[in-house]
Amino acid sequence: MTPRDASDDNRWSDLDRPPLNVTALRRGLVREGGLWREVDVVQSTGSTNNDLVNLAAKGAAAEGSVLVAEEQTAGRGRLDRQWTAPARSGLFFSVLLKPAEVPVARWGWLPLLTGVAVATGLSRAAGVDTALKWPNDLLVTVGGQERKAGGILAERAGEDGVVVGVGINVTLREDELPVPAAGSLALAGAVSTDRDPLLRGVLRALEEWYGRWRAADGDPAVSGLQETYAAGCATLGRTVRAELPGDRSITGEAVAVDGDGRLVIATENGVQEPVGAGDIVHLRPA
Length: 286
What we know:
Blueprint lengths: L3 E2 L16 H8 L8 E7 L3 H10 L7 E5 L5 E2 L5 E2 L6 E8 L12 H17 L4 E3 L3 E6 L2 E13 L3 E9 L25 H21 L9 H7 L7 E6 L3 E10 L5 E5 L4 E4 L3 E4 L4
Parallel strand pairs: 2-3
Antiparallel strand pairs: 1-2, 3-6, 4-5, 6-10, 7-8, 8-9, 9-10, 11-12, 11-15, 12-13, 13-14
Helix pairs in contact: 1-4, 3-4
C-alpha cells in the first residue's frame, strides 16, 4: 500500500482524536547531535515496519528515521499476528537503528530496550503505570486486570540496521478493543492521552536508553538495561507456560532474564531452561 499524506481531508473526522502535529514533533525531536534525524507522519499505511525496512533497503532512510502512521491497515505483531485499531486511536511508529559498534549477538536486546523506553516515556508523559511482559508486550491494569496495551516488533533491515516497530493503544474504548484481554492507556486511567507529548516522551526515552546501551558496546549489565528491564518485567516471579517452536511447552517459574535477553524458567524438576523465542502465558498461582 502506498502511504497517504497526513493532510487528507478526513483527518478531523473524530474531534476526540486530533491528528499528530508533525511540525511540532520535528521541532521537539530533531536536533543537532541527536539520534532522531527525520520524523514523517502518514495518514494510513499497511505497516510502518514494512515501509521503513523497504526504505532502508533502498538506502533512502538513515539511522534515526522515524515513520509514524495515524492508521495501520496491516500492522503486525510477533508471529505475524495482526494489530488493528481505529485511526488516530494510538501510536503506531517504527524507527531505524544502526548500532554498528555493538556486536550483532547483542542486537537481540533492542526490543527489550525499546520496551524499557516505552514504559519510561509513558510513565512520565501519561502518568500511567505499565509493566513489561517478556519479551515485548506492554501491560496496563484495567479494573484490577492485567491487559495488553502495546507491543514491539524488531526486524533486520539489511546488513547493518534494525527497524523497531511500536504499537500502543491510547484512546481505545472498551467497545473498540480487538479482544477482551486488550487495554488502552485511557482505560488504565492515563492523566493525558494527547499523543504528541506521549510520542515525544517515548522517543526521548528511547534515545536516552539507546545511547546508554551503545556507549556500553551493547553490554546489558554495564548499561543498566538488564537490571531495569527485570525491575519492570511482570513475567519474573510468575508461574508461566512457555509455548515453544515445534509444539513443545514448558511450565515453571520465570526466575531471570539472562545476559542474552532470554527468559530463564525454573521447572518443577529443578532444571533452569533459558527461552529465547516463544509465547509466554502468565498462569494464575496454584
